Amino acid sequence: MTTRHPAPSSPSAVAADAGPAPTAPPADRPGVLVLGAGGRLGAACIRAFAQAGWRVHAQARRPLADLPDGAVAVATDLADTDALVRAAAGAVAVVYAVNPPYTDWDASLLPLARLGMDVAERLGARFMLPGNVYNFGSGMPPVLDEDTPMRADTVKGRLRVALEDEMAARPGLRSVVIRAGDFFGAGTGSWLDLAIAKSIGRGRLVYPGPLDRVHAWAYLPDLARAFVAVAASDDELPRAERLHFAGHALTGAEFLASVERAAATIGLSPGLAWRHGGMPWPLLRIGGLVVPMLRELSRMAYLWSVPHRLDGARLAQRVGPLPATPIDDAMAAALQALGHGTARGSSPGPLRAASCRAAPRARARTA
Prior knowledge:
Layout: E1 2-4, H1 11-17, E2 31-35, H2 40-51, E3 55-59, E4 71-74, H3 81-87, E5 91-96, H4 105-123, E6 126-131, E7 143-144, H5 155-169, E8 174-179, E9 182-184, H6 191-196, E10 204-207, E11 214-219, H7 220-232, E12 240-244, E13 248-251, H8 252-265, E14 275-278, H9 281-287, H10 292-299, E15 309-310, H11 313-319, H12 327-337, E16 363-365
Parallel strand pairs: 2-3, 2-5, 3-4, 5-6, 6-8, 7-15, 8-12, 9-11, 10-14
Antiparallel strand pairs: 1-16, 11-13
Helix pairs in contact: 2-7, 3-4, 4-5, 8-12, 9-10
């Protein structure tokens, strides 16, 4: 049986209700369990689901600060399935935002994901996985949709294919992969802060690939709202589904131009002119002989030279139109989240600005 999800709060209501400590949500609201809530995607999903009126159970190994109203912390290990099921009883969706260290994927990726699938299966909830483009390999076509053949030719790509295949093969598991490009926004740990804008204070930008190649990007607050919309439309999905989040598809030159425009709006100036640089991939490959992280990054360097974008048509068909933050607004918010620049007057924050549109057809499964 299905029930209709109550309409999410308006942006003004969210702002007015914000308080110093989160409050428990009404019991009749649909529930979601966010695994790996301490990471950037997990935190973005907590905010998006809470602002859309969901009951949010936020699982993390470390204490969580600044949880929004409607979210409660679950300080339970991922391996403790029974405790997680008890804590998140009634949840209809499980967002798997766990991301093991990049150098540990071989040993950890599949075992950790199986723990998450176990929890979702026990809850009878939809298991929601953020996917990436590794599955398609270095020969991927310029436009990727849900029917594009998966021809992974790296270890990480083959692991991702194996994970998605295992999800689909579990007869008792309802699952969805929401595939997106490289994350940016909502904090540290992306290519934006680790490379591209690392030296923005000195007027220097570094792009990892040729400036004329299209690359897929996902602004995390927008992607989080897509997770909300998909969870709210669960009853319209097949048992195992794959959906692509279009995000922003930009050449390197377009991305850097957006960084420069956004920097100007928040008061960052390069001095005389912006200086551009590239990644020294040959040196990084040599360094990878002794530094595991450099080795792993170098193996995926093709992503910057092979043009690609994600076709989001099927996702839009499933859930309706999704809010998309204009690239310059997203970039300015992303830079400010990294501590750069100054506030831009009365401009709303990235999640609050569109929270009222987070779930266009909000329906939830009940027992």
